[in-house]
Amino acid sequence: MLATSDRLLRLLALLQVRSWTGPELAERLQVTTRTVRTDIDRVRRLGYTVDSTPGPAGGYRLGRGDSLPPLLLDDGEAVAVAVGLRLAATVAGVAGLEEPSQRALAKVAQMLPSRLRHRVAAVDAATVTLDAAGPAVPADVLTTLAAACRDGRELRFDYRDHDGAPSVRTVQPQRLVHARGRWYLVGWDTGRDAWRIYRADRVALPANAVGGRCPPRDPPGGDLVAYVTDSLAQATWRVRARVIVHAPAETVAARLPAGAGVVVALDGDRCAYEPGADDPATLAAWLGLLGSDFELVDAPPVVANALAELSDRLRRAAPVTPAGTG
């Protein structure tokens, strides 16, 4: 049998995970259910809130108290917390979070045993951060957006687009996404009757931002991650085009790398392809990958010029030899 102090620590660790019945705790701790009840009383006198529910489906679980009691972490959890706090201080992109993260990290590091402190220090020393934090988002804005996503509450907020033009949006929020050092809100814009992605650092929440409940929606295209990835890739494109490809959509999509544009089936033998890039030469290269005939139906003149230049360059690199001349 564990000593009383060791048993209380083990009991606290169990209560942090989930709800346990008295017999389950007794079996885990190898004591009687009466001892479990006594230990629960001891834990409560130490300042921990333990919620209990009577009945066959009831049990004990660590509850929320008025103050933060000491946390009990195993080795893996302690390292995960320390590394997470380090990342929060450098790449989270949340205003005012850096200093609290550094303070919390110092407290965690001070409590770590030597073997774990060295492991955390090794990760810190060997890590180079490339995905630096983008524009900071106020913590209260981020938590309000997150709560609205979780609770299914409609939001009404002021928004500035990339040109700084203001607008008021009414949105049914679905998810928060952290990508490229920025926070984004994905939601259904009721005013535009379409899915939209909003930079969280451009959102300003009035006092009455949170509204009534909104229905859950299936993610756009059935895959929210793919939608966000494609949308963010397209948002930075400076040159765009639309072509009709004389090949099935699945054939064309299989030849293109991820993020090279959107392919939409028109019929069994044709599809529309909408590529984009930072410059016309790169866009022409995407079109060169199609491996099928296509018609350029919507594009600025620089795209046609880039295609002509690419065609000339390829012809010079591999001149056609007349048949029968060897």
Task: Please characterize this protein's 3D structure.
This protein is an alpha+beta fold. It has 4 domains: 4-62, Winged helix-like DNA-binding domain superfamily/Winged helix DNA-binding domain (Arc Repressor Mutant, subunit A, Orthogonal Bundle), CATH 1.10.10.10; 75-126, no CATH class; 137-219, Roll (SH3 type barrels); 237-317, Alpha-Beta Plaits (2-Layer Sandwich). It contains 11 helices and 16 strands. It has helices spanning 4-15, 22-29, 33-45, 75-91, 98-111, 114-126, 139-151, 224-235, 249-255, 280-288, 301-317; strands spanning 50-53, 59-62, 94-95, 137-138, 153-160, 166-179, 182-189, 194-199, 203-204, 210-213, 239-240, 242-245, 262-265, 271-274, 276-277, 294-298. Strand 5 (153-160) and strand 6 (166-179) form a beta hairpin.
Q: Quick one: how many beta strands? A: 16
CATH class of the largest domain: Mainly Beta
Q: What is the CATH architecture descriptor of the largest domain?
A: Roll
The major β-sheet equals:
6 strands, antiparallel
Rounded Rg:
29 Å
Write the layout of secondary structure elements.
Elements: H1 4-15, H2 22-29, H3 33-45, E1 50-53, E2 59-62, H4 75-91, E3 94-95, H5 98-111, H6 114-126, E4 137-138, H7 139-151, E5 153-160, E6 166-179, E7 182-189, E8 194-199, E9 203-204, E10 210-213, H8 224-235, E11 239-240, E12 242-245, H9 249-255, E13 262-265, E14 271-274, E15 276-277, H10 280-288, E16 294-298, H11 301-317
Parallel strand pairs: 3-4
Antiparallel strand pairs: 1-2, 5-6, 5-9, 5-10, 6-7, 7-8, 11-15, 12-14, 12-16, 13-14
Helix pairs in contact: 1-3, 2-3, 4-5, 4-6, 10-11
